[in-house]
Amino acid sequence: MLTVADLTKRFDAAPVLDGFSFTLPRNGFTVLIGPSGCGKTTLFDVLTGVVPKDAGSIHWNGEALPHLGNVAAYMQQKDLLLPWLTLAENALLPARLRRREDLAPARRRVAALFARLGLAGFEHHRPATVSGGMRQRCALVRTLMFDRELTLLDEPLSALDAITRRSLQSLLLMLQRDFQRTLLMITHDVEEALLLADRVLVVTGAPMRVIQELVLTAPKPRRPGEPALVALKESVLARLEAELGHVAA
Amino acid sequence: MSRLNILVLLIIVALLGLWELACRSLDLPPYILPPPSRVAWVAVARSLVIGPHALATALEIVAGIALALAVAVPLAVAMFARPVLERALAPFLVASQAVPVFALAPLLVVWLGYGMASKVLMAAVIIFFPITVSLLAGFQSCDRDLRILFRLMGSGFWGALRLLYWPWALPQFFAGLKVGVSVATIGAVIGEWVGAQQGLGYLMIQANARLQVDLVFAVILWLSLMGLGLWALVGWIERRVVTWR
């Protein structure tokens, strides 16, 4: 379980995070949704240790940590595949960078994951020669190869077309279900949040704060047109619009 | 052949034609300005004389490039790994280029003698700066998100250097190397002018003293071709190494 308490980060005295707290249950899929500029990316930067926090505490499975850089896998909007490596070599990177590791089992695992994610036969292709969806699936394999239970997803699907996005959403659900990952995802897409999450935190800034928390118990996979989801989507959008209107006023 | 190449060829032919025409119509003596046809003829006819000197200069240049790479690559890596080192060394690097090579050449000949070493060092002094600066800029231009990803994958500096920074910086490294090899002949030839027993610079000085201006031009032609050849060789290697662009 992840427990973040009183997290504070200021840039030039302007607080982006000011005592922000939340918890993440193990093997849960939590989605943070909010407007641009509300501090979601700063939250991930602080959580991963890219930017030092000013105050607050982070506990992962009861252990106090300065950041999650050594315990969390990370996937973001850009696939961040190295163009000079093949897809398989890209996926193998986490294992290669963990020194003194026998790479043979890691190679077999990459091959199995490629087969499972529909990338079999493309192991030796360079990223530039495959589609955006395939690149993002390869990035997903690389994320799995981190071998870390906690996974932070920073708008991983926002650059994809609708069809590819739908297929990748299924893979994210598989990630949670079959690989027992604890997922924290940022997205701007309310529908995507409602389709994937067990829990949705609707946030605004600045400083960032939770204005609505939704616990979703409907079984997955969910259908985008389900009346309950559509109603929930409208309510979240209305809440965000009201909040933004309030801020603007 | 592309339209650009045809245009370049046409410009060269036009300039050479004008030069040839000027020499013939003004009846200029060859010891003042030989026509390009005579220069080309001398460059071929006296290749047995020019060849050994060209080989000596080529060896100096290649050794200069090797020495420059041996200094520039570790230096760029060290400055990238320790930014404080970059700030400390930057004034010295700039100063090394601000001093005219003509001023350094006599000193190097005094210290290292009339042999190959002084010319190799002259060439290396000229070449190492563009390589160092380009490679360092290449390392520093690495995508922030990729750096973060490598950090989160638990990569140390050397792992990231091998798998991320070095391949990322390769295009800029080759750009610097191309600049370096293009001007490498300058260092070697200046070294040979100041004091040498062989080399194209030495041959130019000898020919100039005898008013063999056509031979001077022929040597310049050989030098130009050597520079172009090196540039093309680096481009060829680049295309085989940087295969993902």
Largest interface: A-B, 24 and 19 residues
Task: Please estimate the helix content of chain A.
Answer: 25-40%
Calculate the mean pLDDT score of chain A and round it.
88
According to DSSP, the number of beta strands of chain A is: 10
What's the CATH class label of the largest domain in chain B?
Answer: Mainly Alpha
Number of domains of chain A: 2
Report the portion of residues of chain A in β strands.
25-35%
Shape of chain B: globular
Q: What name is given to the CATH topology of the largest domain in chain A?
A: Rossmann fold
What features would you highlight for this structure?
heterodimer, A: 249 residues, alpha/beta, Rossmann fold, 2 domains, 6-stranded mixed β-sheet, 4-stranded antiparallel β-sheet, 7 helices, 10 strands, B: 245 residues, mainly alpha, MetI-like fold, 84% helix, 0% strand
Describe the structure.
The complex is a heterodimer of chains A (249) and B (245). Chain A folds into two domains: 2-71 and 149-248, 3-Layer(aba) Sandwich (Rossmann fold); 81-147, no CATH class. Chain A contains seven helices and ten strands. Chain A has helices at 40-48, 87-97, 103-116, 132-145, 162-179, 190-196, 227-248; strands at 2-11, 14-24, 29-33, 55-60, 63-65, 72-76, 150-154, 182-187, 199-204, 209-215. In chain A, a hairpin with a 2-residue loop joins strand 1 and strand 2 (14-24). Chain A is globular and about 55 Å long. In chain A, 40% of the residues are buried. Chain B has ten helices and no strands. Chain B starts with a helix and ends with a helix. Chain B has helices spanning 3-25, 36-45, 47-81, 83-98, 101-112, 116-140, 144-152, 157-194, 200-209, 213-241. Chain B is globular and about 75 Å long. Chain B folds into two domains: 1-33; 39-241, MetI-like (MetI-like fold, Orthogonal Bundle), CATH 1.10.3720. At the A-B interface, strand 6 and helix 2 of A face helix 7 and helix 8 of B.
